[in-house]
Amino acid sequence: MSPTIVLRKTHDGESHSDNRWGDLVLVWGGSGGPKIISSVTQVFLNVFFRGMSLFDAVTNPRVHDQLLYHESIVTTTEKATLQGVGGNPGPILEVPESIQNGLLERHHRLLEIDYTGCVQAILVNHDTNTLS
User: Cβ distance 114 to 77 under 8 Å?
Assistant: First the structure.
């Protein structure tokens, strides 16, 4: 699961609400067994460090390394073909080649898989009073 909550206070240390912990910004968690922690972490990094929208952060292809994957030492990278219209294949989700090359340069053995965990998330935008 790895349910996670991010709260924030304003620059003066206050929150916009009466919550002493600060205002809710993001809640998220995941499913996928051993892939949960890496999936949840990558969504966090995508939103807060890479500046992605929540939709892009959740749908961005992910990397997972659990040291042994089905008794092999590999790093898994997500590659999946989405379902298209009328039975045709849709777009391909794939970890960018630059990231794959960076992993290979660090001597990772890569294995493409079509599922690296599922993440559900809600982002609160206090500027527009909307939820994503």
Answer: no
Residue 13: what pLDDT? 57
pLDDT below 70 — which residues of the chain? 10-20, 68-71
Between CA 114 and CA 27 the distance in angstroms is 25
Q: How far is CA 122 from CA 3, 49, 77, 104, in A?
A: 12, 17, 25, 34
Place of tokens 């042994």: 68
- pLDDT value for 57: 94
The residues, ordered by sequence, that sit 6+ positions from 49 with a Cβ below 8 Å of its Cβ are none
Supply 50's token pair.
Answer: 């890479």
Q: What is the pLDDT of residue 87?
A: 82
Distances (CA, A) of 9 to 22, 28, 31, 78, 109: 5, 19, 29, 35, 42
Q: Which of 110, 114, 113 shows the shortest CA–CA distance to 102?
A: 110
pTM: 0.78
